[in-house]
Amino acid sequence: xxxxxxxxxxxxxxxxxxxxxxxxxxxxxxxxxxxxxxxxxxxxxxxxxxxxxxxxxxxxxxxxxxxxxxxxxxxxxxxxxxxxxxxxxxxxxxxxxxxxxxxxxxxxxxxxxxxxxxxxxxxxxxxxxxxxxxxxxxxxxxxxxxxxxxxxxxxxxxxxxxxxxxxxxxxxxxxxxxxxxxxxxxxxxxxxxxxxxxxxxxxxxxxxxxxxxxxxxxxxxxxxxxxxxxxxxxxxxxxxxxxxxxxxxxxxxxxxxxxxxxxxxxxxxxxxxxxxxxxxxxxxxxxxxxxxxxxxxxxxxxxxxxxxxxxxxxxxxxxxxxxxxxxxxxxxxxxxxxxxxxxxxxxxxxxxxxxxxxxxxxxxxxxxxxxxxxxxxxxxxxxxxxxxxxxxxxxxxxxxxxxxxxxxxxxxxxxxxxxxxxxxxxxxxxxxxxxxxxxxxxxxxxxxxxxxxxxxxxxxxxxxxxxxxxxxxxxxxxxxxxxxxxxxxxxxxxxxxxxxxxxxxxxxxxxxxxxxx
Length: 517
Fold this sequence. Notes:
This protein is 62% helix and 5% strand. The protein has 517 residues and is mainly α. A four-stranded mixed β-sheet has the order 3-4-5-6, covered by helices on one side. α7 (172-193) crosses α16 (363-378), α9 runs antiparallel to α16 (363-378) and α20 (455-463) runs parallel beside α21 (483-496).
């Protein structure tokens, strides 16, 4: 296990990592707000709250919170149902209050019931989706928002058809910038491993963003045909010309809608979905953490709840812990929560001080950064390592990956859980009951916990016993025997008298029943 990071050393890593996460988070915040039908600045507010507040309250050292793509459909529907964005903000505040209650009640333990194979599949699946979704942006087809993870897109296209369309209609400017960016990232990482100081201090992602701005300006002067000028191909941060303009971008929640039952239903739905996404992301963050620290899940829930209360009061979108930004944070070298805090401060500073500069960043540069992050999550070595663990691990892993690619995060994880549960039930069912027969003697041994899931197996084996057999049912190795199994044994005893079968029980009836509660 790696030694825990020294604080003074960590700051050298957390500052640059926070800058990288900021560059990744900025277009994601804007894209999610746009897709949600909310003011663009609402996404920035949520990102600031996730970075500056939740990072301090959460027990995770590497997790990053902000507006989540998985909530977009819920947000769009909620705004339409409640009739205004202000009423929706009241639901966000309610969502936060419910999450605080869940955290205090210890509901974070739910995340412990997700199998490791599904968590690994979630990371690999999101990585694959990131790569596939960023290919069109790298080729200059910015028809979809940069943070979308859904297979079916708003323009009735899908992930695969969008790649085909982009390949047919490549724009040379974005293509050149994205190729240069990927090559720079790969080369920078190799040089950093060589130990050269400049390559370890300055993140390659920052170099790529600066390179993208400079190359595009060179295009403008030297080859205007390659120059990227259309807003849809660049970061589009709202520009406040004065402090008054900035203040007007904040929205106040409308609590007069609290009497509407729909508001309570939406608040509860947001709380449940946001909590599940946060717990899953927290599990992923702990798995990615190079220092293998374990984060308290219930604390994460009330931290997320506090964040949603504040975000709703300020006019921001609901927040969760998010895998893309967390992955970028870890791969950028983050050591502690300070990196996430820095990213929040930079979001705040960017909205106040440098929106014009950031609006010159090509989305192709950011797509290249995300492609490299996605590749690290889903590289072939990941699949090989899980495959070596056996089919009971690999199949739920692969199902989770494919389901995330072709549906979305939550559906993918639920399908992976269902597949994992099948293998658990199959494992518990197999070899729970063994039968050894010799002449007219039969030994039936209960080898492990025997529940109603084994009822059919036991009943089938008992029915196959011939008349006149001496049967011993041995429960010595079974720590627990379900009442359903005892009833099967009792029914067999009653039937045995009519078939000349003698039945002896050993450690079955007297010692196995757990007290009912």
